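fyi for ur records
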Amino acid sequence: MSGPEHEFLLPDLRFVAVERLVPHERHDDRRMTPLVQRIREQAMLKNPPIAAPLPGPRAEQRFVVLDGANRVAAARAAGLPHLVVQVVRYEPPHVELRTWYHALAEGSRGQFEMAAGRIPGLRCRDEEALHARALLARREVLATVSFRDGGVLTFAGGRDLAERNNLLNALVDVYRDRRFYRLSTDSLDAATARYPEVTALVVFPHFEPAEILELATRGEHMPAGITRHLIRWRALRINIALDQLADDGHALEEKNRWLNEWLREKLAMREVRFYEESTVLFDE
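which gave:
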């Protein structure tokens, strides 16, 4: 198949002030600390975060971070004034928003139910698996949790997007300091086949980009590891030297001129490659 929507587009890479990057999800402290150390040891930015412009004056342009919250938090913690990001249009076919599910490897149903029961405003009910799936599809519940004994719990509450997001954060807080895996399947059988130690699977609903943008503009954060953004023509291994990111003596315009020249040189030297097929990396 051919056509403009299928043609290779060079990633839109830009230097952006770190203070202009707005996360839409919480960062993970356990992942951020090693990232800060890795950035300093490697002295380079390997893979740029993905960001989309937020509405507002161009002179005060802000960007919502769709992927790379930990890298942005690490850059902020490292005191970097600027960061190279890949700017995308937050719409198909440029970006597809999907959902990660959380497979829990620690804790019993009783422990989970007791901890969740202490969250004010969160309603918990036992449901049959099929009905629970239907409730989630209609967005009548915030999440479902399937257990190996066949039981399914549903969690509901909140009068608006902000309240529901706060309850969702509180629910994820029940287990976020324990071991869990992010999966793209909502099947507990598939989760346990991959990870035999899994005891439960937390399934979230599908979210819309408008919800992500609304929360971000309000300064509110979703739980880490739920939104999954698929990016067409994602830039990887740009390997920008830390000196370029840390240098606060040059204006953004000057840095971006350097970045454009860097990209032209990469193209001229035939060092840019793109893959249309799905890829699996083993050095991340």
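The chain has two domains: 4-96+230-268, 101-203. thats all i got for now
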